[in-house]
Amino acid sequence: MKYWLMKTEPSTYSIDDLLAEPGQTDHWDGVRNYQARNFMRDEMQPGDKVLLYHSGKHPAVVGTAVVVREGYPDHTAWDPESDHFDPKSRPDTPTWYMVDVRCETKFTTPLPLKHLRGLSALSDMWLLRRGMRLSIQPVTAAEYEAILSLAESA
DNA sequence: GCCAACGTTGGC
DNA sequence: GCCAACGTTGGC
After folding, report:
1. Measured from the CB, is A114 under 7 Å from any atom of strand B?
2. Which of A1, A16, A54, A59 could be stapled to A10 by a disulfide with Cβ–Cβ 3.0 to 4.6 Å?
3. Pairing verdict, β A3-8 and A49-54
């Protein structure tokens, strides 16, 4: 089982939007970065655990989710009406992929990014690296557990 | 609003 | 294949 962090801009799509879906489950569409695509297409599996992260005005880890469907083509890429339309992606040769995730927990208090900095348990976390913009990031089991502990004690 | 860090585009 | 220009992300 692997662990991940998935970023979202809450004014576009927040943890509350995910919770509002039937079964608290939705597809994670719109990722248009090849490295992030590769993680979803090639590595993410049902059962993998996910930290949900809000970027923007109040950057914070806000809850957890679980992957419930492995990577499959992101159909929004070939929808001309979609904000994420990409004419290079074709149904027979899809460029972009997504997974389905189910929200597991929403933290009672978001765990702000600034509270994570400087913690030795998280010193190697991708999220805290300078200039790290990748929207799908691998997380270690130890980092995942550390985040959960912080969330519970917050 | 600023700006650093990246990714992409396109001329050559 | 190189690299300058440009657009985007996202923290501050």
Report:
1. no
2. A54
3. parallel
